[in-house]
Amino acid sequence: MMMVSRFRVVAALAMGLGAIAAPNLAHADGVLRTVIVIDASSSMRATDPKELRKVAAELFVDLTRDGDQLAVVGFDGAPRNAMPALVTIRGPADRDAVKHAIRAVGNDGNWTDFTAGFLGARTILSATKPGPGDQDLVVFLTDGRCDPDPQGSIVEAAKAFGGGKSKIEEVCQEHVFTEQVAALGKARIYAVGLSRSAPKVFLEELGRRTGGVGVATDRADELPRLFEDIYARLFGGRLVEGPFGGAT
Question: Each residue of 35-63: pLDDT tens digit?
């Protein structure tokens, strides 16, 4: 997609959200400290060839209030392309810095280790102490099931139970809950799966346990709308009735 087209999409969607979310913005206390976590595995080339996940993430940046904080981390078998710290949004230059980080997230990773994505978010959020009333958020996007490095600790742990893809997936998900989510404390997670193989039940449980939302879709063109809906829900609103963003 040409860059000008991407910005037209972002601008149009931001205008559409304004009438719904804007009335609540002044009533939100504290700073929203958000890390956007994006799958950088090579399968993204097929599931999102137009990189609409990046359009969606940039939309989220444009909607973010001045004074709130943002950061970005990509992941495959490990955190990658991570920003060194949260950026406080004070103007166009700060938004551009976050957008640059979004565009830098690749699509050539060999693995998809969910624990790596959440570790990246945790590292960034823990680097600075939140102030009174501040809220930590993680917006997590993946296009498939957990597929960690076969030489890593998750696969080794799964071997004790017979191994196999289903057991590896189970162990990976359990590590996310018991290690990464637990260490994130009160952070809310908004999890999005992009593909028919995305673990919808796991993503929904991530949202349920943390006070966020989880959803799966097999349409990349729904991502901007889903990220728009995430932002609306941060302030108690929603764009549509029914399931998260209308996805299933």
Answer: 999 999 999 999 999 999 999 999 999 99
Amino acid 238: pLDDT: 59
Higher pLDDT, 122 or 28: 122
- CA distance linking residue 147 with residue 181, whole number of Å: 18
Give the closest residue to 193 by CA, choosing from 209, 215, 174, 210: 215
Quote the CA–CA distance of 20 and 13 in Å, as a whole number. Answer: 12
Decide if 102 contacts 72 (C-beta within 8 A): yes
CA geometry: angle 13, 18, 20, nearest 5 deg = 110
Strands 213-217 and 87-88: unpaired
Q: Containing H/E element for 205?
A: helix 200-210
Question: Which residues does 8 contact at the CB level (< 8 Å), separation at least 6?
Answer: none
d(CA 124, CA 122): 5
Neighbouring C-alpha atoms within 13 Å toward the C-beta of 103? 11
Backbone angles phi, psi at 78, to 5 degrees: -160, 165
Question: Could you give the percent of the chain with pLDDT greater than 70?
Answer: 83
Instruction: Tell me which DSSP letter residue 244 carries.
Output: G
CA distance 153 to 215: 28
| Contact (CB, 8 A) for 181 and 189 | yes
Residue bearing tokens 């103007």 = 91
